[in-house]
Protein: Rhamnulose-1-phosphate aldolase
Amino acid sequence: MTAILESWFVKGMVKATHDLWLKGWDERNGGNVSFRLLDSDVEPFKNQFAPNPRHELITQDVAEVAGQYFIVTGSGKFFRNVILDPEDTLALIQVDEQGKGYYVLWGLKNGGVATSELASHLQSHIVRIKKSNGQDRVIMHCHPTNLIALTYVLPLDEVTFTRELWEMSTESLVVFPDGVGVLPWMVPGIDEIGYATAEKMAKHTVVIWPFHGVFATGPSLDEAFGLIDVVEKSSEISVKVISMGGKKQTITTENFHALAKRFGVVPIQGVL
Structure:
């Protein structure tokens, strides 16, 4: 019998969180990850679930994912420690029947609760299930250094931010043709930022929280991580270009149309 600790989804979370920490995007206990699991994913492990799982409340109504399973990072858990003790730092949870709380089925062995951003994650999951016909299963929040830096110098509007990031790397348009959503600064961990992020997730796979970080989605941990990696790479190039005095030449609108045609993507309207 394979232990939950050795399951592909726990190993995937261990790798993702460690990679995020190595990138410098999840200092201390900053950031959080949630991965929606299917019944078929957890079925082989149900006999290892806690016999009397404790129940925790959720601040928002998430009835649309009632009964669904997620593996998530724990609140206050340092990403650099996930690789050392996944059973303490991660949690396999199931949203309760009413969508008002969740059961801790595995993990958080020394106590604690799921990430403080859980409600925001679940609201975004609800939107992305509909938008992607169930394909998107990961929500990833982290603090990419250069992207955050750009929120201090670029206008905080989606057209400007998207165009800047697309221009910084040829692959960017191909990787996130739906551009980036940008919120105003908001207090993290409250219901309002969860609703606002979910609203942006209806149009974008990347949502920027100014002076804070990013929310991103994808069908797998690799896809979500890779999306942030591309956005952060473009941000790093932008920071360097700005520091060198600004652009002398760049990718043109005509170039972007040719790129979109070659790779079969449809750029979000209003940017080109």
In short: The chain has one domain: 4-262. The domain at 4-262 is CATH 3.40.225.10 (L-fuculose-1-phosphate Aldolase). The CA atoms of residues 27 and 256 lie 35 Å apart. The first helix runs from residue 8 to 23.
